[in-house]
Amino acid sequence: TNSPETSSMGRLFDAMSALLGVRAAVNYEGQAAIELEAMAVPNCDAVYEFKISSKGNIIEADNVIRGAVADLLDGMPASTVAGKFHLSVARLIAMMADKVGIERGLRRIVLSGGVFQNKFLLEKSRALLQGIGFEVFTHARVPTNDGGISFGQAAVANARVMRGRI
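-> structure tokens emitted (166 positions)
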């Protein structure tokens, strides 16, 4: 996608894929992430730590990349590093959702967007979010990628029009 939020996460998956030797060049959007997911050890319980700015609105991944490099240099299998990375992203999603949820009094969340085509990430995120009291919603009748996001934006706009708010 072209939005900075999703492309940044997609590029992070691309970078980790290249680092682990999964794929240095892609032939289609999401290819590196799909192959990274396929190799990831699913029962990993260790994570890398994302750095969050003091204002909470900038997420830095340099610690994650450094941690992955250190693990690889120490001989950790790439599949384990991939598992740690996926769990780290899921933990980040839960942590940020909890922060926003506390600030705004919300305990419902929708997981959508191309990154949630990744079933490993979706299931880990869902479990972590439910574990901290979130009601989690996902796609069912519309695609999880940009088509679903566009549909959701159109639905919100329609609801606002119907209420006279636009």
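The first strand starts at residue 51 and ends at 52.
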